[in-house]
Structures are given as C-alpha cells and as structure tokens.
Specification:
The complex is a heterodimer of chains A (about 160) and B (about 350).
Chain A (H helix, E strand, L loop, with lengths): L4 H8 L19 E6 L5 E6 L3 H26 L5 H8 L4 H8 L3 H6 L3 H5 L3 H11 L3 H5 L14
Chain B lengths: L16 H12 L6 H7 L3 E5 L3 H4 L4 E4 L5 H9 L3 E4 L4 H13 L4 E5 L18 E9 L2 E5 L7 E4 H8 L11 E4 L7 H21 L7 H17 L3 H16 L9 H15 L2 H30 L4 H28 L3
Antiparallel strand pairs in B: 1-2, 3-8, 4-5, 4-8, 5-6, 6-7
Classes of the chains: A mainly alpha (about 160), B alpha+beta (about 350).
C-alpha cells in the first residue's frame, strides 16, 4: 500500500483480538457486540461501545440532516415553505412516510408544504399529521425560534 | 394452553439483531444454536449495492441478505415449527402479542429504531428492519430484549406500537414471529442445515450474473466510489455517500467489518461441527478480508474527517474495496467448489 507506516498506525489496532476491540465511545453507556478472536484464536462476542471511525461516520450523516433542517427552517422563515415542511424534515420524515403514517395522500402532504395551503389545513388533517409525528397539533403550526440540531446533544 | 413451566427468558448480547433474535428464540426452545451458527444457517452474509444511494441513502448498500429472511430460513432448515404474523389492526396486534407473552412465549418483532426510545437519540434513524424480542409485560410497558445492547430493557407500550407500525421502506406492518413448539434436533439435521446455509451464501456471492449482488456488487461499488467526488452535488454530498457505506459496515448490528467477522465465526464453528479443516482455513481468510474492510473504514474516515473530497483519496479507498471484492470472490468460489456446487 502506498501510505506510509505512520499513516497505517491507527489501522494496526484493527487486527481483531478480543483485547483490542475498540471502545472509543465510553460515554455511550450502552454496549453492543462485536466478534473478535480470543487468545486461543477462537471467536467470541466482545461488548464494545463503538469505534471512532463509526462515530465520525454517524456524525457526518447527522450533520447532513442538520444542514437540511436549517435550510428548510430558513425557507419556512422567509415564507417559502410551511412550518409543516420544517417539522417533517426535523423529524426525519419524508412526504411519502408522513403520507403513509397519517393516512393522507402524498399529493396533499406535498401541497401542505406551502405556507398558504397549510394555513387553511382542516383541523382533522392537522391532528392526523400531529399524531403521525407525535407532536402537539399547535406546535406544527408554529416555527421554533431556531432550527433543531442533532449534533450538539452528543458531544 | 399455557406451558407447564414458564422458563425465564435469558437476555444475551449479540452482534446482529436478526441472528441474535433467532438464536435467542431457539435457545429458549431448547436448542442452544449460537448466533454465528444461526447467521450462517440462515445465509445472512451477502452484499448488495444498487446505484441509488443518492435517492435512498445508506440502504442502497447492504452487507447482508434481505431483512426478515433469516429467521424463516433457519427454522425451515432446522425443521422447527414457527409462525409469522402481520397486522393491519394495531389493537389486535397488541392484544395478540400480550396473549403470546402471557403464555410464556418470547416473541420476535420487526421494529423501526426511530421509535425505540430506550436507544440513544443518535442511533434512532428511520430504519424499519430492527429485530427485538418481547418476553414479558408490566402495566403500560413491555419487557424487551434487544440483542444488540447489553441489558434487557422496558419499552413503553406507545413507543413499541409506533415502532411496529412505522411507515416507509421495509415497513414492518406489525410483523411478529415465534417458535410454536420445542425444537427437536439431531446432529445430522444440524450438519445438513449448516451445509445448506453455506451453499446458498457461496452461490449467491459468486454466481449471480448481475452487478448489484454478491462480489460483483462490491466491484461496482468500488467503481462508483471513485466517481463520488465527480458526480455529487457538492463535496459534502460525496463525503456523506462515503460515510454512509462505513455506517452500513460498522454501525450497530454488524459484529464488525460488515458481518465478515460474524461469518468467519460461523465458518470456525462449522469447521468444528463438520470436522473439516478447510472451513477453518476459510475462516482465517475471511478474518483477513474483514481486517481489510476495517482498513477501508479507517481510510474512509480520514477522508470524511478532512472535509475534502479529492479524487485520488477516493480512488485509494475504492482500491481497498475492490481488493476486498476480489478476495471474497476467490474465497467463496473456493468454498462453493469445496461444497460441491
């Protein structure tokens, strides 16, 4: 491999021996299982809190969601999108999954992503959106003062 | 109606949810089938990559077989009697689950991690194919044994109901499954099941003439990965697409290196069971391939942590993936020939 010995260094510990299973995220509290070889070369399950590589991969994904949420929040604030569009994105729903969960047609959900039509949404439909996303109906109508963020609460 | 003695259910930490649940249910019914064995018999190892990652996200790449198939395959191959139910009516789903649990039957459930609020917030993505065992209940809560965490937990009724009826890709529709009787098993049947599971995996990894399945999918993933910096909207998207592959490989429930270590553990156990040294040899080889997958993850992590999407870096990471693909092709071809297929 072209990379230097120094660059390979952090990868060396990956050679999986039960005692070397990464436990980088000690703060998580919960453990999952990884398979690793014990002293005699037999596979066993080792509890692990995770790996720095995996944590950072997760963080990339969470930041991408945060970015989308912030974008929709901006659009909702400037009146280009409804507050429903914001709440839907912030809760990782899509038009499709919300439509299915609320029992409302996709076209109608999509229509309600505009501020005008959403302002006229019947209370019964609003209630179904709220039920599906587990929020109060009143909260759906309002836009929070700042977009929700996922990355802050785990560092 | 109820069984004479209700055996308390034992929680056990596993690596992968579905094989963990299958192993736990079998163990409860008198057959101590380990998790790797269940994973191998149910042909859990696979590789899928469909070129839709910009549309459907991380689920475009999978290191395992389609969710939901493992339990039924294991049961059929071992000759265990089981039942699978799906529901439209949420009330009825809850009622029937309560009846089963009250009768002392641990029940496997397909759920969405998004609604399981005993998991840390950052793991709760809308992913619909997580498997858990429910083995008891108290007022308003279910006793849940989630194989990928180290303790049994309580899950509120509403949270579980939402998790069972989440919408979206691979929606669970309240799917539940359980073994209906004690499992009787003779050693020959077990050996036959191990061979059947192994044959299916070896065949599917090498013989599907489409670029989206088996080792060919690894190759096509490598090829596409080289193009990520070129054909993404912005560098951020290229890095996200790379990180998503690492997430599928390393995140909760793969046992490390995209199930490769778990399958190596199966090969090791199979070697002892069948008295076949070739299996042990293949296990060692697969462990090495797993190490290589982990090196890919570490290489990829350096890329997405740098925040820059440069083509040479992606090509370097893709080269490791390609090498993994070629080595898996070699290994599973050898395995298939050895199994006489």
């Amino acid at each position: 491999m072209p990379s230097s010995a120094a660059a390979e260094e952090p990868e060396r510990r990956l050679a999986i021996r039960a005692k070397d299973v990464p436990n980088d995220l000690a703060d998580v509290g919960l453990h999952r299982g990884d398979y690793a070889l014990d002293e005699s070369g037999k596979y066993t399950v080792v509890p692990t809190s995770g790996w720095e590589v995996e944590r950072s991969a997760n963080e990339v994904a969470l930041r991408a969601i945060d970015r989308d949420v912030a974008q929709v929040w901006q659009l909702a604030r400037s009146g280009h999108r409804s507050s429903l569009a914001y709440h839907l994105t912030a809760r990782m729903f899509t038009v499709g999954t919300l439509a299915e969960a609320a029992g409302v047609s996709m076209l109608r959900v999509w229509w309600h992503l505009r501020p005008g039509p959403f302002a006229r949404v019947p209370a019964s439909v609003l209630e179904r959106y709220a039920q599906a996303m587990k929020v109060a109906a009143g909260e759906l109508r309002a836009l929070p003062s700042a977009p929700a963020r996922l990355v802050e609460d785990h560092d | 109606m109820t069984e004479p003695a209700i055996v308390p259910f034992q929680h056990q930490l596993s690596a992968h949810c579905e094989s963990g649940v299958t192993s736990a249910l079998l163990r409860h019914r008198g057959q101590p089938i380990s998790e790797p064995l269940a994973f191998g018999i149910g042909s859990g190892l696979f590789f899928v990559h469909v070129p839709l990652d910009r549309q459907i996200g991380p689920m475009a790449t999978s290191f395992r077989s389609f969710p939901g198939t493992l339990f039924t395959k294991v049961c059929k191959r071992l000759g265990a009697t089981f039942e699978v139910r799906r529901y439209r009516d949420q009330e009825r789903a809850g009622r029937e689950l309560a009846e089963l649990v009250d009768a002392g039957t641990p029940v496997g459930l397909q759920t969405s991690v998004y609604w399981l609020d005993y998991l840390p917030r950052r793991f709760r993505f809308p992913f619909n194919a997580h498997n858990i065992v429910v083995f008891g209940r108290s007022s308003g809560a279910w006793k849940v044994s989630d194989p990928v965490i180290d303790l049994a937990v309580d899950c509120p009724d509403e949270s579980l109901r939402r998790a069972r009826f989440a919408s979206g890709l691979m929606a669970p529709h309240g799917r539940l499954y359980y073994l209906t009787a004690r499992v009787q098993l003779d050693p020959d049947r077990l050996k036959k099941a191990v061979l059947e599971g192994a044959c299916e995996t070896a065949t599917r990894m090498t013989r599907i003439p489409l670029p989206w399945f088996g080792w060919r999918a690894i190759r096509s993933l490598a090829k596409r990965m080289e193009g990520f910096p070129r054909n993404s909207r912005d560098p951020g998207e290229a890095l996200l697409r790379l990180a998503n592959i690492v997430r599928m490989q390393e995140e909760v429930g793969s046992g490390g290196a995209g199930f490769r270590y778990l399958y190596a553990a199966f090969l090791q156990e199979g070697a002892g069971l069948l008295g076949d040294p070739i299996w042990a040899e293949l296990s060692t080889k697969l462990t090495e391939i797993g190490d290589r997958w982990r090196q890919f993850a570490a290489r990829a992590a350096r890329i997405y942590k740098s925040g820059k999407a440069e083509e040479p870096d992606f090509a370097e990471a893709a080269a490791i993936v390609r090498e993994c693909g070629e080595r898996e092709f070699e290994l599973f071809t050898q395995f298939r020939v050895h199994l006489g297929r």
